[in-house]
Amino acid sequence: MSVSAETPTLLRVSGLQTWYPIRKGLMRRLVGWVQAVSDVSFEIGPGQTFALVGESGCGKTTVGRSLLRLESPQKGEVHFEGRDLLKLDSDSMRAARQHIQIIFQDPMASLDPRMRIGDQIAEGMKSFGIGADERERVDRVRALLERVQLDPDTMDRYPHEFSGGQRQRICIARALAVEPRLIVCDESVSALDVSIQAQILNLLRELQDELGLSYLFITHDLSVVRHLAHEVAVMYLGKIVEQGPTERIFDAPAHPYTKGLLASIPSIDPERRGGAPPVLGDVPSPSDPPAGCHFHTRCGVVMDRCRRQAPRLFEIEGGRSRCFLAEHSDPT
Amino acid sequence: MSALLEVRNLRTTFPGALRPLPVVDDISFSLARGEVLALVGESGSGKSMTALSILRLVPKPGQVVAGEVMLAGEDLLQLPVTQMRRVRGARIAMIFQEPMTCLNPVVTVGAQVMEAIQLHDSMSKVDARARTRELFAEVGIPDPDARLDAYPHHLSGGLKQRVMIAMALSTRPEILIADEPTTALDVTIQAQILALLRNLQRDRGTAILLITHDLGIVNELADRVAVMYAGRLVEVAERKALLSDPLHPYTQGLLRSIPALSRAGERLPEIPGVVPSPDQWPAGCRFSTRCPLRFEPCAELFPEEIRPAAGRRVWCHEVERSMGGKGAS
Amino acid sequence: MMGFEPYVFSNLVTVAVLIGLGLLVRVVRRQRLWNEAARQLWDRRKLAIVLVGIYLVIGLLDSVAWKGGVPEDVVDVLPNAPLTLIDRVFLGTKEASYSAPLALVEFYGAAPLRRPGTHALGTDILGRDVLYLTLKGARVALLIGGLTSLIAIPLALLFGVGAGYFGGRFDDFVFFLISTLASMPGLLLLIALIMAMGRDTLSVCIALGVTSWVGFCRLSRAETLKLRELDYVSAARALGLSEYRIVVRHILPNLAHLIVITFVLMFSGLVLSEVVLSWLGIGVDGSWGQMIDGARNELSREPIIWWNIAAAGSALFGLILAVNIVGDGIRDVLDPRTQKGPT
Which residue of C has its CA nearest to A112? Predict the structure, then answer.
């Protein structure tokens, strides 16, 4: 179930590149770049969940933050509701922010410890002019707290009085308060216990069904993705290496890294116990990625060509794969 | 296999507002020589504190107030501190979750491992360095000679954890306590570390007390599993038995909430509510506030241990009732 | 200034300060976090707080002056001079010269005192009651500590938070400024400024303020750098808040505990600095520092005259000790780490 040509696209990202300069010395000379995100393109339709998956250093968090211009991309386009967000001036960008919101990973750091949660939920409303007066905003805050299954009477409490899972619900309420159409969930359940994760994931699904929200779900945990996402893109060292509908990715992964990633997840099937680890070696640094295909240093089926040439994304049945093994299936 | 480590009625308390709160409450289990026992639970279950209690490293203001920790017949809790120090690191070693914070950033990793070696074995520096190099190779650190002189910040998370494992195993301990050893690592690196631990354990016959919340890791490494909830044990069983036929409702709920099992489109089964904080523990079974199978005795009466089969222990009124035991209403 | 006589100006400022304090108390009462902190502080440091309170009250009593009401027989004060409450209590107690505490006669020459046995701490070389001088010193000390901090802290915040939050050229500029100021010998700079601006209280306070804001500037810059990276700041930006509003609503309140702690600790440092300035001859008139400096010669007399320096020294010691104890208490109570229990 991927985004077809007829479905109106909510978000279209093309050729996104966000590199961080490395400066050394007294004169702050430019000595290199951390190639956090290179040439990333994808689309999200309304009511869809798109998952961006990868391990540390792959750039998925930078992609999420770049969409909201919390980072500064060098190249690329982010078309949202018909406008390229990267080209907007700061006032227009601030207005556009209403419809893209973000929920972070660490529930401790996502809320201001010295502000009451009711005020924090209402803050966005005030800045976008939602709610005619104080009373209406208070009513909306109470309704939102109920919607995320928290007691509305707790709106005068401070963040440290809540548990991690409850704080994440407050962050969801804060994001919902401004009536967004797309929410970037940046590792939003990674810091929670498994039983709480299930609650939050179910809540996110319900909200999606009820409000027609789209999610860009950023995570390293593939098992979470299977439950929530319609489409998945796997990232490695700043590039998308494979993309496709969730079921296809899980049932028939094409890229060697995706295969290794899936095989590395410890199974709870008591009959299956691991053998040799599927992917060896460490992740190279994004400031000095390997030549040719970024993954070739750890790939089990590396060919000579992979060391010299960097593959592009080839079209395959059910998505795309950045691997020379997929080249033959590409009609172009 | 005789029990190498036997923990009996261990209780560790932290001061609370009204009375001390037992974050480790009457825990008893045994660890056989060469066995891997997983201690499983979510945050607040007391699993990490149990490990710290065994090593008598409970941070103040907490303290171990009752119980026995028998290591080959000797009660560790009664040992004078000087002798306990010789146990720590030499007979029982521990590795932690965050290798970043466990390594001294201004000392090379080689020097840190050598320090651990020389602490427990009298050895010349040259010999210690050679031994360290051997260990680095054994734990799979590529280019070990160069890495001896590297500082922690030069190493990735996976490599740092390998250094920690090398340090822990350098003294050939009988028991290794691993507290969430792979939680901070990427999944591909985690697979490598788990394979390493499995191989080392098999080759050296080290017993491992593995503390984790991830049932997948439990399946990969453990022989037996003990599940903790809010400071108490709720179920102990052999790995296959626990994963294929869990008896306690908490274990069942935990297995069901793991996203991998459900297909997309289904609502994830969830355990409603949150883990109660220590000052809100009910008098009876601590899981009763969230248990779908709760009935009369559960909130008031703490279930006693029952042994439904060889090697299985469970604390649940419902299981007791379905077995036809006392408590049937 | 503006045709006001100094004492009227001083009265107005006192009233303003009182109103300010009242507002502060109201704000603290309404914010539960601060309320709880204040309560905890009171529980732990009652004695020190009461002591500081006593100094504050004495300083207050010496802050409001009015003219007139001078009895006929008092000769050492002009009938139309503005006098504070404390001045009036001690009106007409001036002797001719030194006398020991609670003495009946003068120290040198044993001439009878005008008011024998009433001078609890003796009199100084001009015959003024030492208790009177000590009480008056309280106001000076509070001014030096308080007013200077009120100058230094906003200055430090402006540059520090600005540099930390906005970075770039402004940060480079502030860094340059701080490094330059920090490399100058503080004392010499202080002396130069006081020589240039004059020796009245306000000038000394400004001079002290300008030379003591650097430390807190660095601290607030470092803390802002840390806070800026936290998720809730990014969340605020995602919610459409302008950078200015983010600084005011999210950064500054989370610096508040640092501000309070810095204020309290800076206070004692400043009062002690003024003692050094008095020793150099450029301190503020009427301060304890001046009393101590003036008493230097007295210590070498035979028999020794000790009550001047003892009174000023004890008063100084008492205030600084109390303020430091309260300051430590505030730090313990406001430290965000001690607010959460073990989870």
Answer: C232
Question: What confidence tens digit (pLDDT) does each residue in C199-257 have?
Answer: 888 888 889 988 889 989 999 999 999 998 888 888 888 888 888 888 998 999 889 88
Q: pTM for this structure? A: 0.81
Closest CA to B47 of B86, B12, B93: B12
Q: How far is CA A268 from CA A250, A274, B218, B220, in A?
A: 16, 11, 8, 8
First to last CA, chain C: 58
Does residue C340 belong to the interface with chain B, where contact is any CB pair within 8 Å?
Answer: no
User: Angle at which helices C130-166 and C252-279 pack, to 10 degrees?
Assistant: 140
Model pLDDT for residues C20-69, shown as the tens digit of each residue: 888 988 888 887 778 888 888 888 889 999 999 999 999 988 888 888 77
| Residue A268 to chain B, least CA–CA distance (Å) | 5
pLDDT in tens, chain B (329 residues): 468 999 999 999 998 888 888 999 999 999 999 999 999 998 888 899 999 999 999 988 899 999 999 998 889 999 998 888 888 888 999 998 887 788 888 889 999 999 888 888 888 889 999 999 999 998 988 888 888 998 988 888 888 999 999 999 888 899 999 999 988 888 888 999 999 999 888 899 999 999 998 888 999 999 999 999 999 999 999 999 999 999 999 999 888 877 765 566 667 778 888 888 888 888 888 998 889 888 888 888 888 899 988 889 999 998 888 887 544 33
C185: number of Cβ within 10 Å = 8
Describe the strand order of the beta sheet including B232-238 as a list of residue ranges.
B92-95, B175-179, B207-212, B36-40, B224-229, B232-238, B313-314
Task: Pick B42's closest partner by Cβ from A195, A229, A280.
Answer: A195
Query: Which among A223, A266, A272 has the least Cβ separation from residue B217?
Result: A266
Of the pLDDT bands very low, low, confident and very high (cuts 50, 70, 90), residue A76 is very high
Q: Is residue A256 reached through a cis peptide bond, with omega within 30 degrees of 0 on the bond before it? A: no
For residue C139, which of C265, C13, C279, C292 has the smallest C-alpha distance?
C13
Separation between Cα atoms, residue B302 and residue B287, nearest integer Å:
10
Report the length, in residues, of chain B. Answer: 329
Give me the total of CB pairs closer than 8 Å, taking one residue from chain A and one from chain B: 132
On the 0-12 / 13-18 / 19+ scale of CB atoms within 10 A, B275 is buried
Distances (CA, A) of A210 to A147, A204, A205, A280: 11, 10, 9, 43
Q: Which positions ≥6 away from B78 have C-beta within 8 Å?
A: none
Write out the two tokens for C128.
């003024």
In C, minimum Cα distance to B62 occurs at: C342
Question: Which range is least confidently modeled, A174-188, A234-248, A309-323, C62-76?
Answer: C62-76
Torsions phi, psi of A32, nearest 5?
175, -175
C-alpha A235/C-alpha A59 separation (Å) is 7
Nearest to A98 among C234, C240, C340 (CB): C240
- Reading the block at residue C184, the tokens are 């100058």
**By the 8 A CB rule, do B163 and B102 touch?**
no
Report residue C56 as tokens.
């504050």
Q: Is the ipTM of this complex over 0.85?
A: no
Nearest to C225 by CA among C251, C263, C256: C251
Residue in B with minimal Cα distance to A276: B195
E strand or H helix at C84: strand C83-84
Q: Minimal Cα–Cα distance from C343 to chain B, Å?
A: 7
When CB atoms are compared, the residue of A104, A158, A178 closest to C239 is A178
| DSSP-derived secondary structure for A5-56 | SSSPPSEEEEEEEEEEEEEETTTTEEEEEEEEEEEEEEEE-TT-EEEEE--T
Question: DSSP code of C112?
Answer: B
Inter-helix orientation angle C32-44/C46-61, to 10° = 100
A95 to chain C: which residues are within 8 Å by CB?
Answer: 240
